[in-house]
Write a structure and sequence with these properties.
143 residues; alpha+beta; Thiol Ester Dehydrase, Chain A; six-stranded mixed β-sheet; 3 helices; 6 strands
């Protein structure tokens, strides 16, 4: 399954008093990687929101394996696990060299920015995601 990744340096602002990456900081790392992945695919998030598609996080499950430390160079990856009518599930990982640090399953829903009701993923995005699809469920989903 194709995946996308970005490299990030751990800065002082990312850490706690012990120079260990603060647990909530990983959410920022994952968000940054998802945004860059969509940008890499040619998908413009601000324009999509203006046109009626806003992504919200519905569910996120994290597993912490090892800590990242101040000044580490980490890689944050994104892989599409499931693509539905109005949502997608991504597998994301933070690694340092060959060490797995954190893994996450992230479920995103596409909603109308005014009503926050589910809407179908834009066709242009679906076309961009086609090389990344592992499983597809086109049946009606509960969002």
């Amino acid at each position: 399954m194709p995946q996308f990744a970005i490299d990030l340096r751990v800065y002082y602002q990312d850490t706690d008093a012990g120079a260990v990456v603060y647990h909530a900081t990983y959410l920022n790392f994952f968000e940054r990687a998802r945004t860059e992945w969509l940008r890499h695919l040619g998908f413009d998030l601000p324009r999509a929101a203006r046109e009626g598609c806003l992504f919200i996080v519905r569910r996120m499950q994290l597993r912490f394996v090892r800590p990242a430390m101040l000044d580490d160079l980490v890689r944050v990856s994104v892989a599409l696990e499931h693509l539905g009518r109005a949502q997608m599930t991504l597998q994301q990982r933070v690694t340092r060299a060959t060490d797995e640090l954190v893994e996450a399953s992230v479920n995103l829903a596409c909603v109308d920015p005014r009503s926050f009701r589910p809407v179908a993923l834009p066709g242009a995005l679906r076309a961009c995601l086609s090389p990344y699809i592992r499983t597809v469920s086109e049946q009606e989903e509960q969002v």
